[in-house]
Design a protein that fits this description.
Blueprint (H helix, E strand, L loop, with lengths): L11 E4 L2 E4 L10 H5 L2 E3 L2 E4 L2 E2 L2 H14 L8 H14 L5 E9 L13 E9 L6 H4 L3 E5 L21 H12 L4 E5 L5 E4 L3 E6 L2 E5 L8 H12 L4 E4 L11 E6 L3 E8 L2 E2 L4 H13 L3
Helix pairs in contact: 2-3
């Protein structure tokens, strides 16, 4: 399978208020967002041409920018309409949606309060990562060396580009060892999340998930918790220590990209994807189509 580099693809991108040809959406090498990480983004999915939880993602997009001390210069209504326009211009169907906002090139120093804030929205075709039966076999996770930072040391509740540096390092290391991803601990050694997805466990029919206080309370995470409760399942948000993992029955990860994906292995710990994982996969599949 030939993978086309993202700067060589064809299509339409919304860039600073206009729909432009894909290869015309460019920034300068001395862009503040590239050098200092002053950039926020969202990861969303469109199903059959309709973006799932678009409003919630747009609100988080703005909140992330505010945490990084800049304002997105377009209203939420403009961004919502722009996302829909790009999905339509790129053919509808099942797409991944990537809004991004970043400081421009007016100043190149740590302080850049007068830099222009650029906003772009790109979409591309991206079906579900796995079919349901393949998913139910469960993926394998490594345990990352890097940890999610102390909330006093980083803007952990922003979907900020700079926070993903340790995620890329951790995922690369996991993939080199044959794993699909890595589970990260938090700054105190407790179970946190994966490099781009939240994590859940089951024990004796009850669902357990880490408290999202030093990592993103993902929109998919919130959706899955709502679906579980709607289907009569008990969900406990609490501190989970690694030494508890041998007592857990099922494990699954959730995110816009991963959707709901069961886990069969985390380092030395084994899990058996079962009825709860299947039920939430099915419930989420129905939810995204409504």
């Amino acid at each position: 399978m030939t993978i086309i580099p993202f700067d060589k693809r064809q299509g339409t991108i919304w860039f600073n208020g206009q729909l432009v040809q894909w290869q015309d959406a460019k920034v300068h090498v001395l862009t503040h967002g590239l050098h200092y990480g002053s950039s926020v983004f969202e990861g969303e999915r469109a199903y059959a041409g309709k973006i799932f939880k678009s409003k919630e993602h747009t609100e988080r997009f703005r909140t992330s920018a505010n945490i990084l001390d800049f304002d997105i210069p377009y209203t939420n209504e403009v961004i919502l309409a722009a996302k829909d326009a790009v999905v339509a211009a790129n053919g509808g169907g099942d797409q991944y949606v990537r809004p991004v906002a970043f400081r421009g090139s007016e100043m190149m120093a740590v302080a850049a309060q007068n830099n222009r804030i650029h906003v772009a929205i790109a979409t591309w075709l991206w079906p579900s990562m796995f079919d349901p039966e393949t998913k139910m076999k469960g993926i394998r996770l490594d345990i990352a060396d890097y940890r999610r930072p102390d909330p006093m040391c980083a803007p952990v509740h922003a979907k900020a580009a700079g926070l993903y540096m340790i995620c890329t390092i951790s995922k690369h290391k996991a993939e080199k060892k044959g794993y699909a991803d890595a589970m990260m601990l938090d700054w105190q050694g407790r179970v946190a999340e994966c490099t781009g997805a939240n994590i859940f466990f089951t024990k004796d029919g009850q669902i357990h998930t880490p408290i999202a206080d030093c990592f993103l309370n993902g929109i998919t995470r919130q959706t899955v918790i709502e679906l579980a409760k709607k289907n009569g399942m008990s969900v406990v948000e609490r501190r989970i220590m690694p030494d508890e993992l041998p007592s857990m029955n099922e494990c699954f990860i959730v995110g816009s990209a991963a959707e709901v994906t069961p886990v069969a292995e985390i380092g030395p710990y084994k899990f058996t994807p079962g009825n709860i994982s299947r039920a939430l996969m099915d419930a989420y599949a129905k939810e995204i189509q409504t």
